[in-house]
Write a structure and sequence with these properties.
Blueprint: H1 3-17, H2 24-30, H3 32-48, H4 52-66, E1 69-70, E2 75-76, E3 81-82, E4 89-90, E5 95-96, E6 101-102, E7 107-109, E8 122-123, E9 128-129, E10 134-136, E11 140-141, E12 146-147, E13 152-153, E14 161-164, E15 169-172
Parallel strand pairs: 1-4, 2-5, 3-6, 4-7, 5-8, 6-9, 7-10, 8-11, 9-12, 10-13, 12-14
Antiparallel strand pairs: 14-15
Helix pairs in contact: 3-4
Length: about 190
């Protein structure tokens, strides 16, 4: 997918998920979550090429401009959307799947240790994370899971679950739990 198509896809994802979004131009110019993602793509490309200092400098500039910190080593999927992104932190070894949505104040953080391997969480496709939630350590949050606001997740979570509390506990989604309005429609035209 070329860069222009990717930008269009990002804008469409934002418009689909945010009922306050009026036009594509407004989203492109005024949504810091998108600006942070676009800056991350540039930083990640530099990181993968071994230009680590330049990658970190770009990510810190994006953080200063958007209030969203995404480490250049993090792997981010398609149609990722950060709504009201201030205070979002995504660590170096975090992995984020496609069609994931984060609200403000979310942390995808590592546990404190001297370990240099995988230290941050993996969010599978279709995960929605509520405002202020903390997902900590090298854990996996399964596909189509919803993490409630201010939950603290420190253990793996199965797919199709709801996580709430401190520490967060998972429960299976019931038939009447409909979070489709929080997620991106699986197929749409760009």
């Amino acid at each position: 997918m070329n860069a222009i198509s990717r930008v269009r896809e990002d804008i469409a994802a934002a418009r689909l998920r945010d009922p306050a979004a009026r036009t594509g131009l407004e989203v492109a110019l005024l949504y810091p979550g998108l600006h942070a993602i676009w800056a991350h793509r540039a930083s990640h490309a530099l990181w993968r090429r071994g230009l680590r200092l330049l990658a970190r400098a770009n990510s810190q500039l994006a953080r200063a401009m958007t209030g969203i910190e995404i480490h250049p080593g993090a792997k981010i999927g398609r149609r990722f959307f950060i709504d009201h992104g201030s205070g979002v932190v995504i660590g170096e070894t975090a992995e984020v799947g496609d069609d994931v949505m984060l609200y403000h104040g979310v942390t995808l953080g590592g546990r404190t240790s001297d370990d240099t391997g995988k230290r941050h969480p993996t969010l599978a496709d279709g995960v929605v994370v509520g405002a202020g939630a903390k997902i900590l350590g090298p854990i996996t949050v399964g596909r189509n899971t919803v993490v409630g606001a201010n939950a603290v997740v420190t253990k793996d979570a199965p797919e199709e679950s709801i996580l709430t509390g401190v520490p967060a506990r998972a429960r299976r989604r019931r038939g009447h739990d409909d979070f489709s309005d929080l997620r991106l429609a699986s197929d749409y035209a760009i």
